[in-house]
Amino acid sequence: MNANLFLLLLLCLSLPLNAQSTKKQSLAGTWYGHITHEGGGYTSQYNFELKLYHKGDTLTGHCYVSVDDIYAEISVTGTLHSGVLLQLKDIKILNSREFDGLEWCMKEYQLIFKRENKTDLLEGHWQGHTSFSTCIPGKVKLQRLSPRA
Fold first, then answer.
1. Which of 18, 24, 35, 104 has the greatest count of CB atoms below 10 A from its CB?
2. Rounded to two decimals, what is the model's pTM?
3. Nearest-angstrom CA–CA distance, 36 and 59
4. Dihedral sign, Cα of residue 10, residue 16, residue 18, residue 19
C-alpha cells in the first residue's frame, strides 16, 4: 500500500468521532487556498482554486492553479471515503499559459476534510508527474467559500 495513503488512513482513524459523522458530507462548492512543494520548480507556492461537484461518493470539477502570469485550468475527478478522505486526480489540462520549458504537473491528491471554527477545510498531500519526470511532491490547504446571497 502506498505509504502516503496508509498514513492518511491512520489519520482518518485517529480523528475525533464528531469528525467522522455518519451524515453524508457534501464537498461541492468552491475551495480557495494554496498548493506548495519543497524546492525546485518555478516557485514553491501557487494559488489554487478548486470547484467541485459531488454526487454520491464521486466528485468531478476543475482546479485553477496560478502564480504571476502563468496558470492552468485542469479537470479533476475523485472519490470520497468515509466522509473525510478525498482522493482526487488531475485528468486533463483544459487551458494553460506557461513559459517555454515549463510543463504542468499532473497530480494525485489525498485530502482530509475537516471543520475548524465553522470553516470547512481540505488539507493534505499531492504527488505527480510530467511527461518527462516525477514532480517534487507537496501539500494542499484549501478553505471552502461560503455561498453569498
1. 35
2. 0.81
3. 23
4. negative
